[in-house]
Amino acid sequence: MTVKLETINCGNCGAPLQIPETAQFVTCNHCSTSLAVKRMESVTLTEKLEQTNERLDQTERRLAEMVYRNELAGETRRWERQRETLMVTDKHGNKSKPSGLAGFFVLIASIIISLVASNAVGGLAFLFIFVGIFAFIVSSIKQQEFEKAHRRHKERRQEITDRYTQARDNNSHSDYLQQLETAPTPEDFLRNLGET
Ligand SMILES: [Zn+2]
User: Cα(92) to centroid of ligand 1, in Å?
Assistant: First the structure.
């Protein structure tokens, strides 16, 4: 089997070089420059390898930034969904952050009602107070749950941002991209482009 050779010109010094048709890289035997071989439809060109690396770096930087934005947008979506489930709905269907203070007012109101109406309702006064205490406890727990989840969301955002800025400051974008557990899909990128 013979290897088909082609003749190209060194991208640095212009000297003709004979290389196998499948070669991706070649070192010029005149000027010793490392070259990447670019085959296009009608022409084969060479490019100095440092230039190729520089372009690769640039691509990695861009990709890392996209991944970072994607991660951040994903976390925001996750929090928005979670927030929906943690909010309370009033009788008009309006959603709001749960507040322990609201439960506290229900408790105060129930105490006042039971005091004012104790003659009329007798032993049922205790029931009012019991309902008030219950409302207070439930609303306090809900508020704590909401605040805990919100704190966690902010922590995650910070983690995502720290990881990215660290990679950017150390210029270690390829490490940053490699540590990803799941590579984002093109659909993720498209969706985020629509959102940002
Ligand atoms: Zn050369």
Answer: 78
